[in-house]
Design a protein that fits this description.
The complex is a heterodimer of chains A (443) and B (256).
Chain A lengths: L1 H5 L7 H6 L6 H17 L15 H5 L3 E2 L9 H5 L6 E7 L2 E2 L14 E4 H7 L1 H5 L11 H8 L5 E5 L8 E7 L8 E3 L2 E6 L4 E9 L6 E3 L2 E6 L4 E9 L5 E10 L4 E8 L4 E10 L5 E10 L4 E10 L5 E10 L4 E10 L7 E10 L5 E10 L5 E9 L3 H8 L5 H17 L5 H14 L3 H7 L1
Parallel strand pairs in A: 1-7, 2-6, 5-8, 6-9, 7-10, 8-11, 9-12, 10-13, 11-13, 12-14, 13-15, 14-16, 15-17, 16-18, 17-19, 18-20, 19-21, 20-22
Antiparallel strand pairs in A: 2-3, 4-5
Helix pairs in contact in A: 3-8, 9-10, 10-12, 11-12
Chain B lengths: L1 E10 L2 E11 L4 E5 L6 H9 L5 E9 L2 E2 L5 H6 L2 E4 L6 E5 H15 L7 H14 L5 H4 L1 E2 L5 H15 L3 E5 L7 H14 L5 E5 L3 H4 L6 E6 L2 E6 L2 H9 L2 H14 L1
Parallel strand pairs in B: 3-10, 3-11, 6-9, 9-10
Antiparallel strand pairs in B: 1-2, 1-4, 4-5, 7-8, 11-12
Classes of the chains: A alpha/beta (443), B alpha/beta (256).
The structure holds adenosine-5'-triphosphate (ATP) and magnesium ion.
């Protein structure tokens, strides 16, 4: 009785959840059990733990969340439309469950699997088993928690030599249910086999200030010579907790680009990790976070250079207003074997108000001797000189600030190769910036 | 056009302008020369509305209005233009579109209809020729990665598009090769009219042989110590400033 009484509320009704699952391969059941055991043993992290020092997740432990199992029809197309991108294959999930009604798979080429993990576990268990849980670290409390609840999510498998022309958009929408906070554990797996190519947009969204908790784990596998373009759009509701882990595993000559853009959520934590496990890999991890009000957004980056001759580039920028907080912790590990590593990391933050705060900590750990690594971090305000320059040409002060803020974001924006995402985000900035209409004219 | 009376300016407790009087009539070109650190850029920046500088005494009227009361953008919209000694790079903001926003802000201020893209492009092409700007500089972000000379030329290009009533050019000639200097001067000369005035700050007589000033002023240590015709510039070129500094010292001594 004692053990049950102390159990985290996040694991309450766990047995009911387990009983409701269809029959899954033994390895998946095992993964779930390991996740549950690990989370049960360690619980939620506290600010005494180094990696959680600046991000307090205690509120997640205090809230009682409801898992919503089967109401994927509860949102209308109208509600979803603003989250969709033009000309994509859409996989839509509501509160963590795949929605047939809202998904759009017509243009999916036959030899590619893109759909619900729950389906894949029944239809193609061997494809899933080969990779699921192989990369994300169960020692991470939220990876453990997510693993305990593996049930659904997006699974994309691109076979050798195949190029997927259309972008695959994986969209997770969450809702609070009549005011009751909900929780979902999307589990995603994207596999690009040898010499394949795919573009995936992974979005998370919600409505108004709905309270809910989204705890996704995404494993991305780029096998030899594959090209993956990945975008992550965080547009959660302003009441949401979002704690995500993204683990990227790359093989020889793989090319991986990811751009993480976040402006939603009350408390957001993104762990983005890449393991460069063979030679000749190019890995780009870019991002942009915007926070205001009392939003808190934390990015924990980790790039492991395990083998020689790989390149990694990271550019993360943040724009903070009001009393918003941002944490950026960038770690690059260059292992002993990884000679001729070329790694660059930079984090730049723009503070638009006195109350905003950034903790930025780029770190390098180098165990090889012939490498080129740079890292840097800056945090500052808008340049008075530039504001004055614009004003002296007749641009109003607020418009000048908006223009320069846009210009700050522009460096990341320009690197976004997928036009639909770039446009979407530009549009977002135009509506967000106080004089967005002038910015729209001037860029 | 511009009337400055007894202007005193300080920055961080240091008095930089110590009583400037200057009267620029419509159609006139005034040159201001003076040694490094004498306060030329300070004067230009104060006119443009830079907030770091504190005006402790004096008045400035522009087209009959109290200039010091206006925000920098209002001054620009009223027809004041300053070409920066060090133009600022603004990545991510297009040189042309930004200028369109600026021009339309001014037009709106004067109750003129906003220019649409087609009209604006026509205007831009016309003005571009005036300063022989390379077309590629139009699409690039404002001054971003421009060479020193390109930046200066871009300032003149901005001026040409915005068509101010009064343009203050702060060392627009410095660092220009002779061809660029000629282009910039021709740009300025083509804009001279009875309605438009210029204050040209420079170290070099060279510029003034292209742009003939009506009046030359010498600014030393925050005061205009000498004013005269265009010959004064030649005299300065051969003698330097020291003879003026001396005269000025002795007058100060006499007055003390
Ligand atoms: N923002 C500032 N803070 C402190 N001192 C300043 C500031 N701006 C100007 N000064 C000082 O005021 C004095 C005048 O500077 P100003 O730039 O006006 O000179 P200038 O005549 O334009 O010189 P130059 O020919 O070198 O361009 C200098 O001593 C300079 O150091
Ligand atoms: Mg100067």
């Amino acid at each position: 009785m004692q053990a049950i009484a102390e159990r985290s509320p996040l694991l309450s009704k766990y047995e009911t959840f387990e009983r409701g699952l269809p029959s899954h391969p033994e390895s998946i059941k095992h993964l779930r059990r390991q996740g549950k055991d690990s989370f049960e043993a360690n619980g939620l992290p506290t600010t005494r733990q180094e990696e959680w020092r600046k991000t307090n997740v205690a509120a997640i432990g205090r809230t009682s969340f409801e898992r919503v199992s089967q109401d994927t029809n509860s949102l209308s197309h109208e509600q979803i439309r603003s989250f969709l991108l033009p000309d994509c294959i859409d996989l839509v999930f509501i509160n963590g469950r795949f929605s047939h009604k809202h998904s759009q798979l017509e243009d999916l080429p036959k030899d590619i699997f893109a759909g619900s993990l729950a389906n894949a576990l029944v239809q193609k268990p061997e494809l899933v088993e080969a990779h699921l849980g192989q990369y994300a670290d169960l020692g991470h409390p939220f990876v453990a928690l997510n693993s305990a609840f593996i049930e659904d999510g997006a699974f994309i498998h691109v076979p050798s030599g195949v190029t997927v022309e259309k972008t695959i958009h994986v969209l997770f929408l969450a809702t609070a249910r009549d005011g009751t906070p909900t929780v979902s554990y999307p589990r995603n797996l994207f596999v690009a086999e040898e010499s394949s190519q795919v573009t995936v947009v992974e979005s998370y969204g919600g409505f108004r200030d709905d309270r809910y908790f989204t705890c996704p784990v995404t494993e991305i596998v780029g096998l030899a010579n594959s090209v993956i373009d990945h975008y992550r759009l965080g547009q959660e509701s302003l009441g949401a907790f979002h704690v995500a882990t993204q683990k990227v595993y790359l093989s020889r000559d793989a090319n991986f680009f990811t751009h993480s853009i976040n402006h939603g959520g009350a408390l957001v934590r993104n762990d983005i990790q890449a393991l460069l496990d063979a030679e000749g890999i190019h890995c780009t991890l870019n991002g942009l976070y915007l926070a205001r009000g009392s939003q808190h957004v934390d990015h924990q980056m980790r790039v492991d250079h395990a083998k020689p001759n790989c390149h990694s580039y990271e550019l993360f920028k943040g724009i903070l207003e009001d009393r918003a907080r941002a944490v950026f912790n960038g770690r690059i590990y260059v292992h002993q074997d990884a000679q001729k590593t070329d790694a660059k990391q930079s984090n730049r933050n723009l503070l638009l108000s006195k109350g905003a705060l950034v903790y930025s900590n780029p770190q390098l750990e180098i165990f090889a001797d012939d490498v080129r690594c740079t890292h840097g971090s800056t945090t500052g305000h808008l340049d008075d000189e530039a504001i004055f320059y614009l004003r002296s040409r007749g641009i109003g002060e607020e418009a000048a600030r908006s223009l320069l803020t846009y210009s700050f974001a522009g460096e990341v924006l320009d690197e976004i190769r997928l036009e639909a995402v770039r446009k979407e985000f530009e549009e977002f900035l135009f509506t967000r910036l106080p004089k967005g209409d002038i910015v729209r004219q001037a860029v | 056009m511009l009337k400055i009376e007894n202007l005193h300016v300080r920055v961080e407790d240091k008095e930089i302008l110590k009583g400037i009087d200057l009267n620029v009539n419509p159609g006139e070109v005034h040159a201001i020369m003076g040694p490094n650190g004498s306060g030329k850029s300070t004067l230009a920046q104060v006119l443009a509305g830079r907030e770091d500088y504190e005006v402790t005494e004096g008045t400035v009227s522009f087209l009959g209005e109290d200039l010091l009361e206006m925000a920098p953008e209002e001054r620009a919209r009223e027809g004041l233009f300053m070409a920066f000694q060090y133009p600022v790079e603004i990545p991510g903001v297009s040189n042309t579109y930004f200028l369109k926003a600026a021009l339309n802000a001014s037009r709106k201020h004067r109750s003129l209809p906003e220019m649409d893209a087609v009209e604006f492009l026509k205007l831009v092409r016309e003005k571009m020729k005036l300063v022989k700007m390379d077309e590629s500089l139009l699409g690039r972000p404002v001054n971003h990665g421009f060479s020193g000379g390109e930046k200066k030329r871009n300032e003149i290009f901005h001026m040409a598009v915005l068509e101010p009533r009064l343009a203050v050019l702060d060392e627009t000639d410095s660092g220009l090769d002779i061809d660029a200097l000629r282009i910039v001067s021709e740009g300025v000369n083509s804009m001279r009219s009875d309605e438009r005035s210029f204050v040209v700050i420079t170290h070099y007589q060279r510029l003034l042989s292209h742009i003939t000033p009506d009046v030359v002023h010498v600014l030393v240590d925050g005061r205009i110590v000498q004013s005269g015709g265009k010959e004064l510039a030649l005299e300065l070129e051969s003698k330097g400033y020291s003879w003026l500094e001396k005269t000025y010292d002795s007058t100060a001594a006499v007055m003390a």
